[in-house]
Structures are given as structure tokens and as C-alpha cells.
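Database export, one record per block. Field names are fixed; values are copied verbatim from the stored entry.
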Amino acid sequence: MRRTASSRVHRRTRAGSWRTFERRFCPVDGPDGATYWGREQLPRDVDPRLVWTIVDCDGKLYVSPGFHYVNRIDYVLCGNPWTDDDERQPDYRYD
């Protein structure tokens, strides 16, 4: 079987930077001007693909696509939706 360059999938193996996250997904400031949103502050009919969860992992903060509840700190609402590929990739650092 011959393997071509197009058959290989490049996946990130480490967390992305906050700067990259900002460029790709365009976080929206919350009602109080902060980047993070409490659950009660998110619009009721929000598209789940616009929501990222800030999670604490061994004292470091990351954003992970979608709604998560374990180790959750708050949420980040974005202008650009995440994709299925983003869901399979490592998270982004929240710093």
C-alpha cells in the first residue's frame, strides 16, 4: 500500500498558545468586560460550538471546546465556532 502526503493527518501533540486561540476563535468579552463568562451569563440559546470551558489541570489553566463540568472554572464565548478537528486536538493554554 502506497501512502501519500495527503493521507497523513497532522495533529498537535501539545497545548496551543492563548495568542493562537485568540486569532482563531475571537473570544467575546463578557457582560462585565472580562474574557470569561459564568454559566448564568451565557445566552440561553448559545451555539455550543462557540463555547469553550476554562479548566484547571494540576494548577494550570486551559480552554477546552464545549461544555465541561469537572475542574471547570468558567467559560469563554467566541465569535468563531470550533470544529470536530478542534475537539480531537489538545487544548489551548489560558494565560
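Remark 1: The CA atoms of residues 48 and 66 lie 6 Å apart.
Remark 2: The longest strand covers residues 51-57.
End of record.
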